[in-house]
Amino acid sequence: MASQIDLIKEFFKKNPNRDIKHPEVVDWVVAEWKKRTGEVFRDPDRGIRSLSQKGQLIKVAKGVYRYDPDFIVNRELEDFTPAQKTQILERDGYKCVLCGRGEKDGVELQVDHIKPKDLGGSATIENGQTLCAQHNFLKKNLKQTETGKKMFIRLYDLAKSNGDEAIQKFCSEILEVFERNNMNGHIEWKK
Ligand SMILES: [Zn+2]
Prior knowledge:
single chain; 54% helix; 7 helices; three-stranded antiparallel beta sheet
């Protein structure tokens, strides 16, 4: 089925930004599939509907679809669809991948982007993971403290090379707090 879907995508990509009725798509993919594989394309309508449900095609009217490359890009930056969330939760057994707790343990489960959206992480099943609310919060906060630590290290290095002792002292004190709390130890600070 995957490559049949690819063939439908191929058709729409060749015909961007045009409202296309079902029969035109179906005729092309059925003939093309026959030509390429010698086999019958099963249920092309279902394939088109599935692409539309995944946000790859815009449903303009009943039986009329449009492929808009810009729309796809925007979609991929968005959150997971409800269907994707369900798939991710099912794959992870409705448990936080870090602590193994689930709703029966009284924790709220959330679906997280492993690679964050703002770093180019996309809304795909592979990039999703189930986290409890606590671990999701922790993950986001650790990211924040990482950013903070890096910024203070840069400021410290700059102050050191400028001979600005006050700023250097200020940054040292903050960075020592990071060290005392074993926070983001993987980010090295050279005094
Ligand atoms: Zn957890």
